[in-house]
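Format notes (please read before filing issues)

Several people have asked whether sequences and structure tokens are stored in separate files. They are not. Every record keeps both together, in the order shown below: the sequence lines, then the token lines. Line labels are part of the format and must not be stripped during preprocessing.
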Amino acid sequence: MSTLFPKNLSVIVRTGEWVKGIWKDTETLSHFIGSIQPATGKDTEFLPQGRRDKGSVKVYSNTPMNVSQEGTNNSGDIVIWQGRKWEIVTALNFQNDLIPHYKYLATDIGRAS
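Then the structure lines:
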């Protein structure tokens, strides 16, 4: 991926399955190369309504990630950055011929342990 400041970042990939009628989340620690930047006021317009009052960042990567979807069992992946956990809540696909990449918006969900 071509980014101005490529970094090796950690992500908790969240998947799951139904087990006897109960949803069970599965989390796996993985890594990706990308860049994290502060979100602007314009970026927050793309966030779901209930997520706009939390801290948010932009995550750039060429790695596809899971996005949280309200009212479903789809949990967003969690990027670990600066000692905090950031849940992926919106994806903007920038797949093109120049620099194909993904732009994600993530919201702060607490301290990383």
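For reference, the curators noted about this record: The two ends are 29 Å apart (CA to CA). DSSP finds no helices and six strands in the chain.
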